[in-house]
């Protein structure tokens, strides 16, 4: 290692400390085989042992953990994006001369522009990326994907990169930009040259050839801008930008227009082409997952997110440190350059459970950092998502029997950032193409939701293993995965959503969480209900399959109390039984109060008496025995936690009885939320300032914060959308919240640091959120 490149002042070192660049940090080389083969795996050691390290090889500090990478993306003042497109390999004199020949003057676009210039420009140019505008491109994307698959559907063997995935995103990019379709092959050569020029390590001879292509690309971009300027009335982002320039010449400069014309093609094209190739490769390597999405295309949107997380097409990004600071506790000097390895962040077990596993049902898959984060986050992310979804729909419906050509070697263009296989050979038996026997295949299309997918859409098929009577009018079902795989782990209080007879109903899990292959639920026959339970009682048979979502837990048992009072009414015993079992296993101090109509209709009585005998108190109406909630909870007891589930009457009595208890002493399970039409005559509109994204979003009186955020392109998860589940949570930085959810406790509400964006609103005129 050359100490000359070490940024640490060695004169201040103690003899024992020595230079802090560890041997592994010294050996790190992003152009070496290990990083090129698998970027996140190649820095696993760093995530574990040295999450922020200095690489003398490239002269960059390398940031590898999720929290640190996100923190760097979040602060675009302290961590300037100005070096995002800087050539990572110094340019030779000869290459510089070649570029000069073409008057090459690639300047600031958006991605590498500092404030205060960047945000006004981003805001001025955002409109073509809003969900409504993007929706208009869907037929074009579908049409192109269809046309390319038509060309090879009967061939039986194809290189998907050469024959579809390179050209379709390029054509989409040109349409989106409003640029006439030019010679694809030439543009492909230009784009590759741009990638090598920016993030690659070309040899001195290659540098000249690359500079030649980049110069031509630059000249081409200039010609297109000139052509569009003559008549900027057409559709597309570039004519839109030219029109915007007339209004705001200081914000949308000439230099910007020329630079973005070139950088925009690359930003929209290569990133998406690579992401698509990575996704299809990953899915075909995991055959059972491919088969699942063929059978259930509603899983595609989340599968896309998981592919972007697991094998994204942007492996690392760059920032410049503008003041002395620390990252993850490591002091970093002003002027330091950062390689922020977002692909490593996406495999950080501190944020993603079992991060190396490819799990298309992962609930937080969309929290990947492949699109960056904060005020520079990818503007085109929702166009890319749409393209990836359409490609997967088209291929899974028309070529479900597609497989990778065995034993092919995948090669990657050596560079730090843009990542996707150069070729992807696939094969299939055209005789088995479904459309030969069922032309209806071609008519299928999933409804497109522009934006990040809803976790509500993530389903799995379960088989009814057994149906047993648990009491009169109560059936216990055991469910197993239809493909025999383990079901997700769960904790006491969790529920699953089941689709029955066209309805989605929630049922608490009441089995043993340690039993991973099987779920148990109990279903009360409710003749006056919405019909879900009737269907189960009357029509469901052992061996039938059901669509299930979850599990989710809105009713968590916190194992931190000194004593627990569990109160269940009727079928409300289902979450409580799992809690009682867990408390018994912990050796906790607990009592269980269980109210029912009569012994025959009260489920699990025998089992509860056996397992919880001395902790259990049963109240049967038929015996004239009623639980006096007010008396039971008359004396507030410090350290006692009360958990209740049952009819509304019981829950209201519990709320009333614990009114004088410490805040948060009572936790109850709600199965119906707070969703109500927003009445514009009653509600008021307000502004939401987004600190990380540097945006202000207006929320209309009849609009939720969640929908206003989505319309502005902000990714935010949601599940129930009625204040029950907590998935739409956002951090509140300032402003008072009118909390309308059922998730936050009283103490959490008064702390005013969190809000549920699907239902809660501002008390006053403005809220500032950490988004
Ligand atoms: C910025 C990734 C597709 C347009 C970015 C950034 C990343 C990225 C990492 C920098 C984010 C940051 O600094 O925080 C990707 C990936 C894509 C993709 C992985 C495909 C899977 C697209 C498409 C378009 C696009 C299709 C255009 C239609 C942009 C623009 C920016 C950007 C304009 C600059 C935003 C700013 O700095 O304000 N993208 N991108 N991208 N991307 Fe994408
Ligand atoms: Fe469930 Fe908001 S989406 S609480």
Automatic annotation (TrEMBL):
Xref: InterPro entries: 2Fe-2S_ferredoxin-like_sf, 2Fe-2S_ferredoxin-type, 2Fe2S_fd_BS, Beta-grasp_dom_sf, Cyt_P450, Cyt_P450_CS, Cyt_P450_sf, FAD-bd_FR_type
Cross-referenced Pfam families: Fer2, p450
UniProt KW keywords: Heme, Iron, Metal-binding, Monooxygenase, Oxidoreductase
GO molecular function: 2 iron, 2 sulfur cluster binding; heme binding; iron ion binding; monooxygenase activity; oxidoreductase activity, acting on paired donors, with incorporation or reduction of molecular oxygen
PANTHER family from the UniProt entry: P450, PUTATIVE (EUROFUNG)-RELATED
Family, as annotated: Belongs to the cytochrome P450 family.
Protein name: Cytochrome P450
Organism: Prauserella marina
């Amino acid at each position: 290692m050359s100490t000359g490149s070490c940024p640490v002042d060695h004169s201040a070192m103690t003899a024992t400390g020595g230079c802090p660049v560890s041997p592994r940090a010294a050996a790190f080389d992003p152009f070496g085989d290990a990083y090129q083969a698998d970027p996140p795996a190649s820095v696993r050691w760093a995530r574990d042992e040295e999450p922020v390290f200095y690489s003398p090889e490239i002269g960059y500090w390398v940031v590898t953990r999720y929290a640190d990478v996100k923190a760097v993306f979040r602060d675009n003042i302290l961590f300037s994006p100005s070096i995002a497109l800087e050539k990572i390999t110094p340019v030779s004199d000869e290459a510089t001369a070649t570029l000069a020949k073409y008057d090459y003057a690639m300047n600031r676009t958006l991605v590498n522009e500092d404030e205060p210039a960047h945000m006004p420009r981003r805001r001025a140019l955002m409109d073509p990326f809003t969900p409504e505008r993007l929706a208009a491109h869907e037929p074009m994307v579908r049409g192109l994907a269809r046309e390319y698959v038509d060309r090879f559907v009967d061939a039986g063997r194809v290189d998907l990169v050469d024959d579809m995935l390179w050209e379709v995103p390029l054509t989409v990019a040109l349409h989106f930009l409003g640029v006439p379709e030019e010679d694809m092959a030439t543009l492909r050569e230009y784009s590759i040259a741009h990638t090598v020029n920016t993030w690659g390590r070309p040899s001195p001879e290659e540098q000249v050839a690359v500079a030649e292509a980049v110069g031509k690309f630059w000249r081409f971009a200039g010609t297109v801008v000139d052509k569009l300027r003559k008549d900027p009335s057409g559709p597309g982002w570039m004519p839109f930008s030219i029109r915007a320039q007339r209004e705001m010449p200081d914000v949308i400069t000439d230099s910007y227009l020329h630079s973005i014309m070139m950088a925009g093609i690359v930003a929209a094209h290569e990133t998406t082409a690579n992401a698509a190739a990575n996704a299809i490769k990953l899915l075909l390597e995991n055959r059972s997952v491919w088969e699942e999405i063929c059978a259930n295309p509603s899983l595609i949107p989340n599968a896309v997110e998981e592919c972007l997380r697991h094998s994204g097409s942007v492996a690392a990004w760059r920032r410049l440190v503008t003041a002395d600071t620390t990252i993850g506790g490591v002091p970093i000097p002003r002027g330091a350059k950062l390689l922020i390895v977002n692909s490593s962040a996406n495999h950080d077990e501190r944020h993603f459970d079992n991060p190396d596993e490819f799990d298309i049902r992962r609930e937080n898959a969309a929290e990947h950092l492949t699109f960056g984060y904060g005020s520079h986050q990818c503007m085109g992310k929702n166009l890319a998502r749409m393209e990836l979804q359409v490609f997967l729909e088209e291929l899974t419906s028309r070529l479900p029997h597609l497989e990778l050509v065995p034993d092919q070697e995948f090669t990657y263009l050596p560079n730090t950032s843009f990542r996707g296989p150069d070729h992807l050979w696939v094969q299939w038996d055209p005789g088995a193409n479904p459309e030969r026997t069922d032309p209806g295949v071609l008519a299928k299309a999933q409804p497109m939701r522009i934006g990040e997918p809803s976790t509500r859409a993530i389903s799995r098929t379960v088989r009814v293993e057994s149906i047993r009577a648990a009491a009169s009018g109560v059936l216990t079902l055991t469910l197993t995965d239809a493909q025999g795989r383990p079901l997700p782990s769960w904790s006491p209080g969790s529920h699953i959503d089941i689709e029955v007879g066209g309805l989605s109903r929630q049922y608490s899990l009441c089995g043993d969480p340690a039993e991973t292959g099987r779920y148990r639920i109990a279903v009360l026959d409710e003749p006056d209900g919405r019909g879900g339970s009737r269907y189960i009682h009357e029509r469901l048979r052992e061996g039938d399959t059901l669509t299930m979502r979850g599990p989710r837990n809105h009713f968590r048992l916190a194992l931190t109390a000194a004593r627990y009072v569990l109160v269940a009414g009727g079928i409300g015993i289902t979450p409580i039984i799992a809690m009682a079992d867990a408390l018994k296993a912990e050796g906790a101090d607990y009592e269980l109060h269980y109210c029912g109509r009569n012994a025959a209709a009260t489920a699990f009585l025998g089992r509860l008496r056996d397992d919880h005998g001395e902790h259990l108190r049963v109240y049967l109406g038929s015996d004239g025995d009623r639980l006096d909630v007010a008396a039971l909870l008359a004396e507030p007891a410090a350290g006692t936690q009360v958990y209740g589930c049952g009819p509304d009457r019981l829950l209201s009595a519990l709320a009333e009885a614990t009114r004088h208890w410490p805040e948060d002493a009572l936790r109850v399970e709600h199965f119906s939320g707070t969703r109500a039409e927003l009445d514009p005559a009653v509600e008021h509109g307000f502004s939401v300032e987004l600190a990380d994204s540097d945006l202000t979003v207006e929320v209309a009186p009849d609009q939720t914060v969640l929908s206003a955020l989505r319309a502005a392109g902000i990714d935010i998860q949601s599940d129930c959308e009625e204040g029950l589940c907590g998935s739409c949570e956002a951090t509140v930085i300032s402003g008072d919240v009118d909390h309308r959810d059922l998730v936050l406790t009283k103490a959490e509400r008064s702390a005013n640091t969190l809000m549920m964006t699907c239902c809660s609103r501002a008390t006053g005129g403005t809220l500032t959120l950490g988004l």
